[in-house]
């Protein structure tokens, strides 16, 4: 359809400019094709299915499915070894953990060292952020003034629950 429209538009331009448009080529295909709509005929040869063939013993050996494990592979190098692949950190740590060492061999677990000289980090009991301040009345640590306002609204049982979460609860008698 697009070719026809293109041909018509080209011929219109030529006519408007005073040229004669080219004539389309006549259809020269004269004979008709016979399309076979029937199914193909069955072969007249007798099948040899189930009959013993006249093959030699070496050819009969390969009847049935081919077992690739028993087949010879002349293209494979029997001395070829794959290149060791890199192990990821998780594999290395698992191997390190599962390995049994003698008691006198130093490992990360059995090396004793002095305690750290850095102060222990303190975290807000409400949000878990770094705690810059501590409420003197309740002993709760907090991050900013907004959280301090929230702490002021807490009751005694709630304050005790927050302190118990970091093992700093005061037992009241």
UniProtKB/TrEMBL annotation:
**Which PANTHER family does the entry mention?**
INO80 COMPLEX SUBUNIT C
Q: Which residues form the Vps72/YL1 C-terminal domain?
A: 122-151
Any Pfam family hit: YL1_C
At the top level, the lineage of the source is: Eukaryota
What's an example GO cellular component term for this entry?
A: Ino80 complex
Q: Give the keywords, sorted.
A: Nucleus, Transcription, Transcription regulation
Q: Where is the composition biased (Basic residues)?
A: 27-51
The cross-references to InterPro entries, in alphabetical order and at most eight, read:
INO80C/Ies6, Vps72/YL1_C
Q: Supply the name of the protein.
A: Vps72/YL1 C-terminal domain-containing protein
Stretches the record annotates as Disordered: 27-58
| Cell compartment(s), UniProt | Nucleus
Source organism phylogeny: Eukaryota, Fungi, Fungi incertae sedis, Mucoromycota, Mucoromycotina
Q: Which GO terms describe its biological process?
A: chromatin remodeling
């Amino acid at each position: 359809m697009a070719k026809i429209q293109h041909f018509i538009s080209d011929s219109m331009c030529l006519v408007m400019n005073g040229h004669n448009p080219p004539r389309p080529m006549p259809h020269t295909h004269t004979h008709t094709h016979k399309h076979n709509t029937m199914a193909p005929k069955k072969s007249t040869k007798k099948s040899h299915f189930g009959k013993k063939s006249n093959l030699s013993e070496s050819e009969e050996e390969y009847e049935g499915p081919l077992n690739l494990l028993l087949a010879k592979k002349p293209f494979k190098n029997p001395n070829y070894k794959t290149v060791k692949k890199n192990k990821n950190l998780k594999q290395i740590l698992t191997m390190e953990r599962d390995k049994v060492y003698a008691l006198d061999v130093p490992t990360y677990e059995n090396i004793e060292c002095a305690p750290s000289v850095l102060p222990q980090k303190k975290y807000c009991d409400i949000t878990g952020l770094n705690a810059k301040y501590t409420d003197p009345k309740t002993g709760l640590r907090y991050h900013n003034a907004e959280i301090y306002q929230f702490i002021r609204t807490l009751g005694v049982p709630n304050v005790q629950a927050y302190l118990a979460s970091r093992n700093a609860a005061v037992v009241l008698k």
